[in-house]
Amino acid sequence: MADASNKPHKPEPCCFVIFGVTGDLTHRLVIPALYNLAESGLLPEQFCIVGIVRKQMSEDDLRQSLMDGLNKHATRPVKTEVAQKVLGCLTCLEADPSDPASFDTLSKAFEKLETAKGTCGNRLFYLAVPPTAFAPITEQLGRVGLLREANGAWRRLVVEKPFGTDLASAKALNGKLLKIADEHQIYRIDHYLGKETVQNILVLRFANGMFEPIWNRNHIDHIQITVDEKLAVGHRGSFYDATGALRDMVPNHLFQLLSLVTMEPPTRFDARAVRSEKAEVLAAIQTQRPEEALRNSVRGQYHAGKIGDQAVGDYRKTPDVKPDSTTETYAALKLTIDNWRWAGVPFYLRTGKALGLKRTEVAIKFKQAPFAMFRATPVDQLSQNYLVIGIEPAEGITLQFNTKVPGPTISIDGVEMKFRYKDYFKAAPSTGYETLIYDCMIGDNILFQRADGVEAGWQAVQPFLDAWKKAGADGLVGYEAGSEGPAEADALLARDGHNWRKLT
Ligand code: BG6
């Protein structure tokens, strides 16, 4: 995340090594992001991409496949000379974690390659592979010394999500990686932190004088975090059925939003201070007893319906999903944070697949004003004071407040003050990965998850995972594809006298 006062500079020479180079993520996001960085002049002068393949593949075939992917997924018109420059520096090497000897060969190949390319020994290993391969690859890299930092050269490891499937597995994975690499070398990606509007939460809170004094339990009634998706599970049945909405979205994406909105002001804008504050606030989420976890959550599964004019079948009929699956495709939770700033303020989180709208937002509901002087008006119908941080699709900030309707009598109506990014700033269309990849190359891990932050996130959701597992099919509710989600999620808020902000 380049400092506002500094123009982004070219990173030091480096070798960008991709495990999983033939996969979807590399084609869809990593290469298009590298292309965009090249177009903006933000790739190192001495740079090379090393694609690691399991079995022999010609460099030309790999290059062609990545070029096809770029043409398909590029966010900007592809300029041939830029694309050729990026993919022209591609080298294809073989390694397979199930064949340790292949890593010895890999290590030797690096020495030669780095001398030829002048990348000064700086290496970034990007693991765009299934999570079960994170530890075996890292262990092999460690064994042959490819991750050892020496003679001023840096060695970094980028790990995609999901990072673990529960608290125990996340701890175990952290343990394995940290045996081989130091925390400063590990970049755990959460693509939500690549979104401009998510990064802006910090700036909104801490670069303005007017929000911080009211950003606490004295003035804030409750906070709603919504990540609703129209997408159904589609071809991801096997991954999703073993994962579910809670694991897929909450300890990572929703908790990134939650922690940025609730953290204490860091003393410095650096990775150590920011990530410490984020981990602290996640660790302060109150642990719920099993009966509380059940009472404070809703899990739903979609059945057939229509999203727009597109018919969507039952989740249980999705390829690779068990016909009697109890995996949730929708989750809503009520959480509380046990610290001086937030004690007593409820946080309502919801996320789901196959819903009627794609919406990502954080809505901060302020306490109601005493309306005694307006008794003559139906005060219960007055608009509520919300500050809404829109992440998708409308990127911006909206403040909702009451105003007098012009006329001889006092009549009140709710209005909105809106800031939209696109009205002020012209940003080149991006994949959302450019900042993250650039930051890895310049060694800034402020936008990456630290081990303690990941574990604090899993710790907070573990009671829900345990309670839901025990309850089995009991308590799993249905909702129609294309709807706003299960009615039970409305009841979760209604119980506290609240309602979800209407999404439009
Ligand atoms: C991914 C999840 O991490 O995030 C997907 O695995 C989900 O299931 C996606 O669709 C949502 O990301 P975004 O940026 O579209 O909100």
TrEMBL record:
Keywords: Carbohydrate metabolism, Glucose metabolism, NADP, Oxidoreductase. Pfam families: G6PD_C, G6PD_N. One of its GO terms (biological process) is glucose metabolic process. It catalyses: D-glucose 6-phosphate + NADP(+) = 6-phospho-D-glucono-1,5-lactone + NADPH + H(+). The gene is zwf. InterPro entries: G6P_DH, G6P_DH_AS, G6P_DH_C, G6P_DH_NAD-bd, NAD(P)-bd_dom_sf. Catalyzes the oxidation of glucose 6-phosphate to 6-phosphogluconolactone. HAMAP family: G6PD. The keyword NADP applies. The keyword RNA-binding does not apply. Substrate binds at H191, K195, E229, D248, K353, K358. NADP(+) binds at R54, K161. The active site is at H253. Its EC number is 1.1.1.49. Belongs to the glucose-6-phosphate dehydrogenase family. Residues 202-501 form the Glucose-6-phosphate dehydrogenase C-terminal domain. One of its GO terms (molecular function) is NADP binding. This is Glucose-6-phosphate 1-dehydrogenase. It comes from Nitrobacter hamburgensis (strain DSM 10229 / NCIMB 13809 / X14). Pathway: Carbohydrate degradation; pentose phosphate pathway; D-ribulose 5-phosphate from D-glucose 6-phosphate (oxidative stage): step 1/3. GO terms for cellular component: cytosol. Residues 17-200 form the Glucose-6-phosphate dehydrogenase NAD-binding domain.
